[in-house]
Structure formats: structure tokens, C-alpha cells
Amino acid sequence: MAQYAILCDVFTVFRESHLCISVHLYLMNYSKGYKNFVNGRYLSEGVRVTAGILLPAFVMSYFNMLATGIVMAVGALCVSVCDNPGPVHHRRNGMLVCNVLIFMVAIIISIVAPSPVLLGITLTISCFIFSMLGVYGTRASAIGIAALLVMILNLQHILHGAQIINNALYILSGGVWYMLFSLLLYRIRPYRLIQQILGDLIRNTGGYLSSRAELYDKDKKYDTVFHAVIQYQVLVQEQQSLVSELLFKTRTILKETTNTGRVLVMIYLEITELFERLMNSYQDYSILHDYFDVTHILDEYKHLLLLMANELEEIGIAVKSGTVSKINFEVPGSITTTKAHYNDLRMNFMKPENINGFISLGRILENIQDLSERIAILHHYTTYDRKLKRNTAQKIDPEDFIFRQDIKPSLFFDNLSLNANIFRHSLRVSIAVLAGYIISLPLHIGHSYWILLTVIVILKPAYSLTKKRNKDRLIGTLCGIIMGVIFLYVIKNNTALLLIMILFMTASYIFLRTNYFISVLLMTPYLLIFFHLLYPNDFKVVLTDRLIDTAIGSAIAFATNLFFIPAWEHSTIKNYMVKILESNRAYYTVIASAFADHETLLPATFPHTRKNVLVSLANLSDAFTRMLSEPKWQQKGVENIHRFVVLSHTLTSYIATLSYYLQSVPLQYRAGDFLPVINETDLHLANAVFTLQHNPVKNIMRSQESLRILNDPADELMKKRQVELKEKRFETETKIALIKVKSVTDQFNYIYSLSEDFYKICIAIETE
């Protein structure tokens, strides 16, 4: 019994120790990561693409027609490239166009292949045209890449006569097979892709909240935190666009004919509103730290936000896996405790000089309570209860959520200019492929088409993307060759090698869209094993060719992108800066004019202006991120541009907060109080745009009269409130009125100040 008691004591100590807690957290995180991966769209996509490519080869091999099966697999591979996530009719139409195109390209390239001159001309023209398809969006760009792939893969053998048509038909049949296979899988589980992407959206919203929570940590550097926040914001907005495309361009879901479709729409609307509320909750955190670091209440706020970020991650995984999420009952208790601490501080720590800080603390606490309630609703949605209803779901206008791609032929010709980045990129691809083809002619390398493949895969419109892919391709290929050689040296059984090849192939496609280095690292061994099984006597030649061709292709791609009409971000980012200023200016005008006109409802143009500003914000952030990856000597004015990006996110948050107060604060205000500030703010933003565009600016009277008019009502209430606090009167009508008035006027003051900062920083950017 004594030994048993000792063991119990030891177990109790371990259970309560930091080591036990660390092990528990590690296991929880591992479990979440595993569930997220297993239920993620990238695993499904990797398995689908692998099966779609290999099945034709296996079936035809059974009938002793392996060569035919490999050609069909090439067709399936090419069509899989354009099978990007999106509405099913877009995917179907894209794959149909791709099948027609690869059939025609296979015939044309086989006809001109015997003549080196004709082949060089055809390669150059085709690379330019298919690269220019990028002006019509991501799916069209993928179709162009598929056409380039089939063109280059058909250079391996010279065909004649009927072989040309037969080869093209085999490629077409493989492409049609993959299209039917992919559409069949969609019919079996039509909501699966939406659930997976929606789950990722919820998890990344949790990541955004977690990053925002770091603002409450007094030891954090704001620039570092804002960089993480911006990255998550761009990611969330990209996924919002993708989910809205899937939901609101898919007729069966939009009509809400099934319970699952209705619930998915409700989840999307709820998480979108939740994210907007997070953007609306921006405060001046430096002032909060000055006031309240000694009280440690900001640590409690951070803890609450991290708890709810963890809940969002749980909900995201539940949505992806189709299970019911578990509510964290620690959150309500923690909110109650924090409220008690806040009220205690109000009674004992509040002074006339820190009233502003307490107003901000109260707003944050209200936002946390609202966030908790919205998360509880999301938990309930994961039950897919048939009784679930959402009134706003009946008022959906799909045009508020989707973006329509212009497919006019004139768009292609309008971009035939050196001012267009896509035109420069298309020229670079053409020149690089032509250079690779010319270099491959005298070398007589057995797999010289790998040079052209490397160029096409690596060369991207942005220097930063090309640089990263180049590095990943070279290092991944080298490490992959070592890995493949080890497997071939250790394993001699062909069946085992075939199974390993399938695993490598699947894993390669799983990581293709998320981590190119890992994808190449796994792709190289599967190619080596494939060629070893197909041509066992030529394995060393294949090994050498793979390494040499990759090195040559990488060198060509890097040199072309660096020296041939490069498009550096510092020369194009001003377009994004002007666009975000114009979008924010329109956004502000829509909201501010409602205050000036005594309106309590958002104008009809609000969804459109909000969508435009979020898209502009994401584009600006992406451009700045690419700029940071360029050579140092091309990062001109990077500090001021970084400041501009941070200010843009802050301004958008302030305007969004103003839109929230328009709907939620029953404020009796005087329209004339707002007009002077609105007009001057708009003029500051207009001058910022004029400065970037080198246009004459308009004069502004440098007086504080407009701010005085705006702030007079709040200042009067503040003086009255300070007297009440000295008299120990805490709950009064003045307090309620002050919070309402101060909430709105603070936002107008913040936005006014930012508009001045924008004008100053645009002058600095132009001067620099």
C-alpha cells in the first residue's frame, strides 16, 4: 500500500508539473495538426491528382500498352494543372478548354518538331501567347501552363504521319479521363471542398486574432506584430474570396436546397462578420500600455483573445472534418473574472486623466463579449441542426461577395505594352525558353526538355517568386537525388519501389501549392524511381541529366528575370498605393456622409466600397512582401513604404470601426459638427494621391477649427464627467453619453490625423 501511495504522489506531482503541461500541449497541437492535415484540401487534391494520372497508365499496362498509358497520363497531368478550386462549372469549362488546347498543341508541336528553326519559332510564339493568358485570371493562366507543359513533353520523341494524330488522341483521352474523374468525385461529395477551404478560413481568422493578441504584450515590437497581422489579413481575405466564389457562384448552394448548403452559407456569413468586427476593434495600444501595464489587465485581455483564437482553430478543424466542435467552457468564466477586474479598476484606479483609457478598455471588453457570442454561434453551426436559421441569409446579394473576371479579347491587346507586367513576363518566358532550346541543341542531353520544363516552372512574373522557386528547385533536386539513390540502393524489389514511388508522387502533389521545396524534394525521387523502373539500364544517365538540366534551366530563369526587362516592385507599387488611397477615400466618404446626413443605416454602396478597399489592401500588402524579397539595391524607399502599408491597414480599421458605430451607437449628433472634418480629411487624402501622381495639390487651411467644432460636445461631457469622478459618482447619464459621443469623435480624430500622415509620407516617398 505504501508503494501504491508513493506512486500516486509521484503521478500527482507529474500531472501538476510544467513538464506534464508541456507534454499535454504538445500532444494537443500534434493532434490538431494531424486532423487538419488529414481533412485538408491539399491531401485530397494530392490523392486525386495522383490517382487521376496513374490509373490510365496502370490500366493500359494491364493490356500490355504501357507506352500508350504513359501518354494518356501526360494528358491527365496537363489537365490537372488547371483543376484549381472554384465553382464546379468554372472547373468543368476550364478543363474542357484545356483539353481542346492540349490536343491542338500536341498536333502542332509534333508537326514542326523535325525542323529546329520552325520548332524554335513555335516555342517562342507559343510561350508568349500562353503566358499572356494570365490577364484573364488564375484559371486561364493555369490553362496556359498546361499548354506549355504538353508542348515541351512532346519534344521527347519525333513523330511522323499517323503517329502525330494518335499521340494527340491519347493525350486528349487522358485529359478527358481526368476531367470526368474529377467531376465524378465532386458529385459524390459536392460540399467537401467548400468545407475544407471554409475550415482553413476559420483557422486563419483564429491566427489573425492570435496575432492581434500580441498587441497586448508590453514587450512586443509593434512593427513585428503588424507584419504578422498583415500577413494573416491577406491570407484571410484571399480565402474569403475563394469561399465566396464557391458558395455564391454555385447555383445549388445559392438556392439553399439542402441543409448542408444553408449551414455553410451561415457559417461563411458569421465568420466574415466576425473578421470584420476584429478589424473594427483597433485601439491606440501604446496609450493603453502607458495607462494599464501596472494593473496587468491587458495580460488578461491577451489570455482571453488567445483562448478564443484556439476555439476558432477547433471550429475550423471541425468544419473541415464534418464533426461537431467542442465548446471551451473556460472562456465565459475568464470573461466574468476580467469584467470584475475591470470594474474594480474603475472604482479604484480611474482618474480624470485616464478616462480615455477606460473608455477604450470598455470597448475592448464589449468586443470580446461579442466575439465570444459569435464563436458560440459557430460552435452551434457545426451541429448542422436543421432548425438553424439566420435572418440575414435571406438578404444575400451575391454581387456583394463575388468578383467577375473580364474575359473580353480587348483585355489581351490592351496589355500588349511594356507598362504591363504580364507583357514583360511573357516576353521573359519566350526568351528564356528559346535560350534553353538553343543551349540544349549542341549538348545532346538525353532529357534536354527538362531544361525547358525548369524554365517554365520557375519563371514567375515577380522576381521574388522566381528567386524563391529557383532556390527551392536547385536544393530540392539535389537533396531529392540523394534520397532517390539511397532508396534505389537499399530496395531491390520492384513492387516495393512502385509503392514508394506512388507515395512520393502523392506527397509531392500534396505540397505543390503550399511548399514548393518539399514538393521538389519528393518529386525528384519519384521521377528517378519511375525512370529506373521504365529504363533500368539508363538510370545513371537519367540521374546526370536531371541534375544538369535543372542547373541550366535555373540559371537561365534567374538571369532572364534579373536582366531582361525586369519589373521591380518599387516601380509598380505606387499604383497599389494610389489605389488603396482612392479606395479608402471612397470608403470614408460613404460612411462619413451618413453621419453628416443624420443617417442610421449604411448606404447601398457600402458593400461595394468595402470589398474594393479590402482587395486593394491585400494587393498592396502582397506587393510590399514581394518587394522585401528583391535585391537590396532595388528596395528603394522601403521604410517609408512600410510605414505607408501599416497606415493603410490602420486607416481601414478606423473607417470600419466608424461604420460599426454608425449602426450600433444611437447618437444624437449635429450634422454641422462633422462636415468641416470630413471635408478636410478628404482633401488630405486627395492631396496624398495627387502627390504620388505628380499632380498639383490643393491648399488646406492649417487651422484646428474643424477639430474644435467636432470635439466641443465630447470635451464638455468630459469636463462634466471629471467633476463627477471627483465626487465619486461613477454610474451616471453623463458616463453613457460620453462613451457614445467619444466613441464616434475619436474615430474621426484618428482618421483626420492619419490623413495628414498620409500626405506627409507621400511627400517623403516622392522626395526619396
Q: If helices are DSSP runs of H or I spanning 4 or more residues, what is the number of helices?
A: 29
Radius of gyration: 30 Å
- Averaged pLDDT: 82
- Count the domains: 5
Helix content: over 70%
CATH domain topology of the largest domain: Methane Monooxygenase Hydroxylase, Chain G, domain 1
Tally of extended strands? 0
CATH architecture of the largest domain: Up-down Bundle
Helix-strand sequence: HHHHHHHHHHHHHHHHHHHHHHHHHHHHH
Please tell me what the overall shape is. Answer: elongated
Properties at a glance:
Methane Monooxygenase Hydroxylase, Chain G, domain 1; 768 residues; mainly alpha; elongated; 5 domains; 78% helix; 29 helices
Brief characterization of the structure:
The chain has 768 residues and is mainly alpha-helical. The chain has helices at residues 2-16, 18-38, 41-62, 66-81, 88-112, 116-132, 138-153, 162-188, 192-213, 222-248, 251-254, 259-279, 285-292, 297-321, 330-348, 355-381, 409-414, 421-443, 449-458, 463-490, 494-510, 516-534, 539-563, 569-596, 606-628, 638-664, 671-692, 705-726, 733-767. Helix content is 78%, strand content 0%.
